[in-house]
Specification:
By secondary structure, the protein is of the alpha+beta class. The chain folds into two domains: 13-130, 2-Layer Sandwich (Alpha-Beta Plaits); 163-202. The protein contains five helices and six strands. The strands form two sheets. A four-stranded antiparallel beta sheet has the order 2-3-1-6. A two-stranded antiparallel sheet has the order 4-5. Strand 2 and strand 3 (53-61) form a beta hairpin. The longest helix is centred in the last third of the chain and has 51 residues, at 152-202. The chain starts with 12 loop residues before the first strand and ends with a helix. Pfam families: RRM_1. Residues 164-191 form a coiled coil. This is RRM domain-containing protein. GO terms for molecular function: mRNA binding.
Length: 203
């Protein structure tokens, strides 16, 4: 049986993501968005003529909590001297406000602790990227001029390390998603058993 009753889920929800650095690789953006919640879809707007990515896009988060966490922790996050912008439309914001108002204290307490952990992780990402305009975990496209004077052999070593990092991140993300889905499945089963028991007792 669930420890507390959670508000009725209102996701998936769309979030506008803007003020992105023009040279920031799209893989890095998606990876960043996934650090705070489950991303159903990320679509960066591109110029119809040049095909180059524009400074904004739209992210769909799976749940209300994912969306709330993204707005809280990523709005204003600094990337290459730019503070990115995350926002939702008025209708979605109203739904999120209502959802938040219905959250039981225990759920809010757990979310606050999770937000603290995610915020600490984002701070480490910021420090890595700021230290060399592209730390070891960043996409090679974000290194810019730092790679111009490096010989091709060294570039391949850097690329190889980054690919391995991305593979590991993908594996961990998949494991986390699987765990989240399993937790949701068990919660639904427990809720059904509780309702069946109540129906049987009333009958």
């Amino acid at each position: 049986m669930p420890r507390f009753r959670v508000p009725l889920e209102i996701g998936p929800l769309n979030v506008f993501v803007g003020k992105l650095p023009p040279d920031l690789h799209d893989n890095y953006v998606r990876n960043l968005l996934e650090r705070v919640g489950t991303v159903v879809q990320w679509k960066r707007t591109t110029d119809p003529i040049s095909g180059k990515p524009k400074a904004f896009g739209y992210c769909t988060y799976a749940t209300a909590l994912d969306c709330i966490r993204a707005l809280k922790l990523l709005n204003g996050f600094s990337l290459d001297s730019k503070n990115i912008l995350l926002k939702v439309d008025t209708t979605t914001q109203t739904k999120l406000d209502e959802y938040t108002a219905q959250m039981p204290p225990q759920l809010q307490f757990e979310e606050d602790h999770k937000n603290e952990r995610v915020a600490a992780m984002l701070q480490r990402l910021f420090e890595e990227r700021s230290g060399l305009h592209g730390g070891d975990n960043n996409d090679i496209a974000s290194w810019g001029d730092l790679m111009e004077n490096v010989d091709s052999g060294a570039k391949e070593v850097v690329r190889g390390g980054m690919i391995m990092n991305e593979v590991e991140k993908f594996r961990l993300a998949q494991e986390e998603r699987a765990a989240q889905l399993e937790a949701k499945r068990l919660a639904l089963i427990q809720e059904k058993l509780r309702r069946d028991k109540e129906d049987a007792e009333r009958g």
